[in-house]
Design brief:
α7 links the parallel β9 (226-232) and β10 (256-262). The chain starts with a strand and ends with a strand. The chain is of the alpha/beta class and 476 residues long. The strands form 5 sheets. A 4-stranded parallel sheet has the order 4-3-9-10, with helices on both faces. Strands 5-6-7-8 form a 4-stranded antiparallel sheet. The chain has helices at 37-55, 71-80, 84-101, 117-129, 158-175, 210-221, 236-251, 287-293, 296-303, 316-342, 349-371, 376-393, 399-415, 428-443, 447-459; strands spanning 2-5, 10-13, 21-26, 59-64, 133-136, 139-142, 186-191, 206-208, 226-232, 256-262, 265-268, 274-276, 312-314, 462-467, 470-475. The protein is globular, with a radius of gyration of 26 Å. It has 15 helices and 15 strands.
Length: 476
């Protein structure tokens, strides 16, 4: 398998550190709200990478963190007049629900920053001892110029970065707001402000810097060197660049062998022009909102319809096209099931042999696409060709060959995180019972349980509408 390595800017043959085993670290969300569809893209893409590596026989240690202490979390907690821990724990659980809906498998480990503070303090002390960090009035900074390779991931020149920071740094120093030795130095530990969560350290009661968190958690749960470090391209600089600097300075080893970054997701505006998603533009969409409009399986299929490094345009028209495309595959699976049930005998032994030969070719082409830097778009194109061929021959081949086509289609789609198994039809009586339970929960003012039942029904393809006449429901 070849992976485009952001570090070298070229495709490289993937060779794990330990034969047969792969350690992957994916930067997870900061949990202060429902995750948005931009968060969903790396979750789906790198979950698919994990599935494919396991299909190839690797044992994968997949680690993805939750950033559960951050300025945004604290701001949300202050706004809602609750503890920061309440906000983070609430939205970790909501994030897990959305991941389950999108069939993103739980990581081998989901570390949380607040549970790894002692190790973070240890790494900061190591950096101070090695001369890579310094303390000023309770704040600890990383001495960026002490790391000779700074800029090697983002391919930024440190002198150009310094020129951009010089005026800003000068103004801060004049006003006494900044005590950095250099404008490029970044925070490893910061003192607490009134009302903020904090931990005791040798420098101050405070909390770790964001960049430090991932360096410590990846080392603890994978090791000093990671096979693959992944995330959105917006994290390349400064987050991943700073991770490299502090990790390699502290550990004295290469931080990550391969770096994978997915492209941005762009949203269609009223003029059908695509723009980057942001709250300021009013085009911010959460996974929860989108999954109320579309089956989460369709959302996942849509996310894999482009090669992961390419920008992905999101619009109602494009996701409807993905729905129709997925329906073609699922319809072909239904047809194969029908053929298998009829227990066909091949009309011609040569046709049967030819069909099996073609099946092997489809699998080889699927694997070749995925081996080419996880090109899910080309892999899906192969699946379309396979189901088109299957539709023309499945009535002529033996039941054994039809079953092999079904089994292979199931395996390939499962690599993409999509099941072709027929969903059991939910009985009307079961739906009505859940609606009664929801009404009872609302009556008892147990709104969390009521929302949970609504979400469960939505996952079953049932949409509720509260009206004056009572609760109405329909199948999506």
């Amino acid at each position: 398998m070849k992976i485009f390595n952001t570090l070298t800017r070229k495709k490289e043959e993937f060779v794990p550190i330990t034969p047969g085993k792969v350690g992957i670290y994916v930067c997870g969300p900061t949990v202060y709200d429902f995750i948005h569809i931009g968060n969903a893209r790396p979750m789906i893409v790198f979950d698919t990478l994990r599935r494919y590596l396991e299909y190839k026989g690797y044992e994968v240690n997949y680690v993805s963190n939750f950033t559960d202490v951050d300025d945004k979390i604290i701001a949300r907690a202050n706004k809602d007049n609750v503890a920061a821990s309440y906000i983070s724990e609430k939205y970790i659980e909501e994030c897990k629900k959305d991941m389950e809906a999108l069939n993103v498998r739980p990581a081998t480990t989901h570390p949380q920053a607040t549970k790894e503070i002692p190790d973070m303090i240890d790494m900061v002390q190591t950096l101070i001892d090695k001369g890579h960090a310094y303390e000023k009035n309770g704040t600890v900074y990383f001495r960026t110029r002490s790391f000779a390779d700074y800029g090697k991931l983002s391919h930024k020149n440190i002198d150009d970065l310094e020129a951009g920071h010089r005026d800003e740094a000068h103004q801060l120093k004049v006003s006494g707001e900044d005590e950095k030795e250099d404008g490029l130095d970044f925070v490893l530990w910061k003192p607490k402000k009134e009302g903020e969560p904090s931990w005791t350290s040798p420098w101050s009661d405070g909390r770790p810097g964001w960049h430090l968190e991932c360096s410590v958690m990846s080392k603890k749960y994978i090791g000093g060197t990671i096979d693959i470090h992944a995330g959105g391209e917006d994290l390349i600089f400064p987050h991943h660049e700073n991770e490299i600097a502090q990790s390699e300075a502290a550990n004295g080893t290469e931080f990550a062998r391969y770096w994978m970054h997915n492209g941005f997701l762009r949203i269609a505006n009223d003029n059908d022009e695509f723009e980057k998603m942001s709250k300021s533009l009013g085009n911010f969409k959460t996974v929860r909102e989108i999954c109320k409009m579309y089956d989460p399986v369709v959302v996942r299929f849509f996310m894999l319809s482009a090669q992961y490094r390419s920008p992905l345009n999101f619009s109602a028209k494009l996701i409807e096209a993905s729905k129709n495309s997925l329906d073609r595959i699922l319809t072909a699976a239904d047809k194969l099931r029908d053929v298998i049930g009829k227990n066909n005998v091949a009309e011609n032994v040569e046709d049967d042999a030819e069909a099996l030969k073609e099946l092997n070719t489809f699998v080889e082409r699927f694997d070749a696409a995925m081996d080419d830097d996880l090109n899910t778009a080309d892999a899906i194109s192969v699946i379309f060709e396979m189901v088109k061929y299957s539709n023309t021959v499945c009535d002529k081949v033996s039941v054994d060959t039809a079953a092999k086509y079904y089994d292979v289609l199931s395996v390939l789609m499962n690599i993409l995180g999509i099941s072709i198994e027929k969903k059991e039809e939910t009985l009307d009586a079961d739906i009505e019972k859940l609606i009664e339970d929801r009404q009872e929960a609302r009556k008892n003012k147990d709104f969390a349980k009521a929302d949970e039942i609504r979400d469960k029904l939505l996952a079953m393809g049932i949409e509720l509408k509260d009206t004056r006449e009572g609760v109405k429901w329909k199948r999506l």
